[in-house]
Amino acid sequence: MTHEELQEQRREKWRLKSEPIRTLEDGRAFMENVGFCLMYPLHPPVLVPTFIGAYVGADENLPTSQMAFADPRAKDATELMVRLLRDRAAYEANLFGETNFLVSAAVFPYFYGLVGDRNPRHMPKPGTRSEYSPLARDVFNAINKHGAMSKAQLHDRLGGALSDSALDRALNDLWTRLRITRVDYRPDEGTFWDVLYRWSPEAVKEGVEISIPEALSALVGKYVEAMIAVEASEVEEFFSNMVSRAKVRDAVNALLAARELALTHVGNRSMLQIPSRQPVVPPPDPARRQPIARRPRPGVRR
Asked: Residue 95 needs a FRET pair 20 to 30 A away by CA distance; which of 39, 66, 236, 294 works?
């Protein structure tokens, strides 16, 4: 394979060849095909598809999240993305700061198994080693007890001299660890947040039961599949936003040893690829609890 052939195959898989997604079914098919993507491109770029690119059907002159307000294509793409979130055909996470990270429904349990909390219903006890600030704990407990809430409602509920910036930090901390998720938006009230385990209990329950090595192996396999072929260093770079590079390297080596990944040459570069003999979605194991129907098992050996 040449570098030009690799780029052409990626463009086709990422819907960048004038075949834009427009309907809910288009969006669902795109998400299931790539597994995860960014909403908008980043600078410097991250090697992963973008939802706005698939919506436009091209990768030139795409808006960033900072310029999305001035681009009518971004408004339409966001409306489709929100429909996917409401349909639970996709989930969003806060990994890259400037733009949302979107994950397909089938892949999300693995993503939760990698970065989510194992006890999603309760916050850890406060202490010097707690990962959450006192305000983040209060925000979680308020939403957990009273249901989905907007920022304005949280201000009223928590009271005190609570600043918008402090509340935003608490919400982002909880969102990053998949404690909460955005579930609605109303022009007069803004975004509404709910605890994730209540919004999507089956996906969270399944994710809690997936070990970190299993989750990482599955996600690495899906990433390699979505990239067509990719250097090991690029895999490490992408997943370093979630776990240490050492863990990613161990996962790649284990998948190579199990022959669930193979090495191929693209020009003069050695890259990882899913072997053609390896099915992307193997049949379910009847000895194990039946998972969500669309749950893929890329890169995981029983």
From this structure: 294
Instruction: Determine the average pLDDT of the residues in 42-62.
Output: 95
Using the structure block, give the residue that is written with the tokens 């989930």: 91
Q: Are 172 and 93 in contact (CB under 8 A)?
A: no
Residue with tokens 């599955």: 218
Amino acid 244 reads S
User: Strand runs (DSSP E) across 23-89, as ranges?
Assistant: 36-38
Per-residue pLDDT at 280 exceeds 50: no
Strands 190-195 and 180-186: antiparallel
Tokens 């690029």, residue located: 234
Cβ atoms of 200 and 88 closer than 8 Å? yes
List 280's β-bridge partners, or say none.
none
- pLDDT for position 283: 46
130 CB contacts (<8 Å, ≥6 apart)? Answer: 124, 137
